[in-house]
């Protein structure tokens, strides 16, 4: 870092000044809502600032920003679809079972964290894991539902545990 | 989730912990397995740590309300396009929406009103009564003779004054004073429901009788059926809501399909699933998506006007 002429803060500032407008436009073309695009563009820069990437080393800053932006965009849609599924499920609850607004928000936060945790698991593995954890189903029952062997379920479960524990390492 | 990749050794420990857990939960573990697990945990502090972490993970899931968590985490996979469409749905899908034309003043004494499928209309009549038409309904208004003729579909009427109005149907007439009621034409005949006040039924066949608030009765060619308690969820349509309380899904879908243009079909095995909830009629596509998110079914749509609900296969 000693051989970098300008301090990194300064470089970040330049980068922000030169490319923020471009990134926001890039995101806006991919999203329906302008203020979401502005938020995500801000997040992209925050990620960059928090990452170990040396800003002075960036050859193609826009390509880099677009890569980070794309990842944030994917996460954004995942969160949005989770939120929609969550709200829909809330709407189906009988009135006296609906949690308080505060609980609803906390629950959504938790679900979003767990959704991210499970991200990357194959669909059947994910389902087997959820059925076991949330509904308390035994391996035999899960095997019947997924029409695979109990041994496969055991393998799925080990895979899911390993995935989650690794993410949290 | 920090930047540096875990060491190969740490990965190894995690994998072992995961396999132990899977074995313990399988119900196939015997005494020897348990003893081996214990000695694995005791053999190194990193093993015990991984084991404890795994227990915490299980606890995080165990503390969640299962139905909500299941519906959210096991949601059907949606494309970015669908998510976007739903996000802006309230605005973008207006043509398909449940349009309640609010309280259009209707200063004329006679008019023929009509709604198309998925539309509702609410009008204020010249005498102060309010009249609302449900989906695919038609009514002829003749206030001079204080008569309304229900041609098709369903109407809700709220008469504040004491001067009676007569609703004409093919099988008789309903005379309403200061009251609130719904009259619906179905395949087999009419259903008259009284929300407030009292109405008088004059069937073409059979004796005249009164129906009070909280009661409903069917009106057919052969006369009236038995008086039943009124279904409080039924008039939800007046506020643009379809309500169900532990209703067989088949009944719910038959009702829902009257609000959707096009064909809505479902597999017979879905008929007896149960459904509870309040659904905004302004976007029936969304109602179908909600059903798919909360019940074991999938929505297959060839076009928006040709939709089939099928039981969800387990191995998806």
Write down how many β-strands of chain A occur, each being a DSSP E stretch of 2 or more residues.
0
Structural class of the secondary elements of chain B?
A: alpha+beta
The CATH C-level name of the largest domain in chain B is: Mainly Beta
- By DSSP, the count of extended strands of chain B is 21
User: Low-confidence parts of chain A lasting 5 or more residues at pLDDT below 50?
Assistant: none
At the fold tier of CATH, the topology name of the largest domain in chain B is: Jelly Rolls
Q: On the 0-100 scale, what is the average pLDDT of chain A?
A: 82
Explain the overall architecture.
The complex is a heterodimer of chains A (169) and B (316). With 169 residues, chain A is mostly helical. Chain A has a domain at 1-95. In chain A, 76% of the residues lie in helices and 0% in strands. Chain A is built from seven helices and no strands. The longest helix of chain A is centred in the middle third of the chain and has 32 residues, at 61-92. In chain B, strands 1, 3, 4, 7, 10, 11, 14, 15 and 16 form a nine-stranded mixed sheet that branches. In chain B, strands 2-5-6-8-9-12-13 form a seven-stranded mixed sheet, with no helix packed on it. In chain B, strands 18-21-20 form a three-stranded mixed sheet. The model of chain B is unreliable at 83-108 (pLDDT under 50). In chain B, 28% of the residues lie in helices and 36% in strands. The longest helix of chain B is centred in the N-terminal third of the chain and has 19 residues, at 8-26. Chain B contains eight helices and 21 strands. Chain B folds into three domains: 8-63, no CATH class; 97-234, Sandwich (Jelly Rolls); 240-311, Phage tail protein beta-alpha-beta fold, CATH 3.55.50.30. Chain B has 316 residues and is α+β, with helices and mostly antiparallel strands. Chain B has helices spanning 8-26, 31-43, 45-62, 66-73, 80-87, 89-92, 249-257, 284-294; strands spanning 99-105, 110-114, 119-124, 130-133, 138-142, 147-152, 154-159, 165-169, 172-176, 179-185, 190-196, 198-203, 209-212, 215-220, 223-224, 228-229, 241-248, 263-266, 274-280, 297-303, 306-311. Chains A and B meet through helix 3, helix 4, helix 5, helix 6 and helix 7 of A and helix 1, helix 3, helix 4, helix 5 and strand 19 of B.
């Amino acid at each position: 870092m000693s051989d970098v002429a300008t301090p990194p803060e300064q470089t970040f500032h330049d980068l922000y000044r030169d490319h923020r407008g471009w990134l926001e436009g890039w995101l806006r073309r991919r999203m329906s809502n302008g203020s979401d695009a502005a938020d995500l563009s801000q997040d992209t820069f925050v990620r960059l600032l928090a990452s170990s990437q040396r800003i002075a080393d960036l050859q193609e800053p826009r390509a880099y920003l677009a890569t980070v932006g794309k990842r944030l965009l994917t996460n954004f849609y995942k969160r949005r679809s989770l939120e929609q599924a969550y709200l829909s499920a809330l709407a189906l609850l009988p009135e006296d079972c609906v949690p308080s607004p505060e609980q609803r928000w906390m629950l959504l936060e938790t679900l979003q964290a767990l959704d991210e945790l499970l991200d990357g698991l194959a669909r059947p593995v994910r389902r087997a894991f959820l059925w076991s954890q949330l509904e308390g189903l035994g391996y035999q029952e899960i095997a019947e539902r997924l029409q695979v062997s109990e041994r496969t379920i055991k393998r799925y479960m080990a895979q899911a545990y390993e995935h989650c524990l690794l993410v949290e390492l | 989730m920090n930047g540096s990749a875990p060491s190969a050794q740490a990965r190894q420990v995690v994998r072992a912990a995961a396999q132990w857990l899977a074995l313990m939960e399988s119900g196939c573990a015997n005494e020897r397995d348990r003893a081996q697990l214990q000695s694995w945990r005791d053999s190194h502090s990193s093993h015990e740590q991984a084991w404890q972490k795994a227990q915490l993970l299980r606890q995080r899931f165990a503390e969640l309300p299962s139905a909500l968590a299941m519906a959210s985490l096991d949601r059907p996979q949606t494309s970015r396009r669908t998510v976007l469409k739903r996000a802006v749905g309230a605005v973008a899908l207006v043509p398909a929406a449940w349009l309640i034309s609010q309280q259009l003043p209707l200063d004329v004494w006679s008019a023929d009103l009509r709604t198309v499928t998925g539309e509702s209309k609410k009008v204020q009549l010249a005498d102060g009564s309010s009249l609302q038409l449900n989906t695919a309904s038609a009514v002829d208004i003749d206030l001079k003779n204080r008569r309304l003729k229900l041609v098709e579909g369903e109407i809700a009427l709220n008469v504040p004054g004491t001067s009676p109005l007569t609703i004409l149907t093919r099988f008789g007439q309903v005379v309403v004073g200061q009251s609130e009621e719904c009259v619906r034409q179905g395949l087999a005949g009419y259903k008259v429901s009284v929300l407030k006040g009292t109405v008088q039924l004059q069937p073409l066949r059979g004796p005249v009788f009164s129906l009070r608030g909280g009661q409903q009765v069917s009106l057919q060619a052969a006369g009236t059926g038995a008086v039943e308690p009124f279904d409080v969820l039924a008039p939800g349509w007046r506020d643009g809501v379809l309500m169900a309380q532990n209703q067989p899904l088949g009944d719910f879908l038959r009702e829902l399909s009257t609000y959707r243009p096009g064909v809505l079909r479902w597999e017979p095995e879905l008929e007896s699933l149960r459904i509870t909830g309040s659904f905004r009629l302004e976007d029936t596509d969304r109602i179908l998506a909600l059903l798919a998110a909360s019940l074991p079914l999938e929505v297959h749509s060839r076009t928006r006007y040709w939709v089939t609900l099928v039981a969800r296969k387990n191995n998806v």
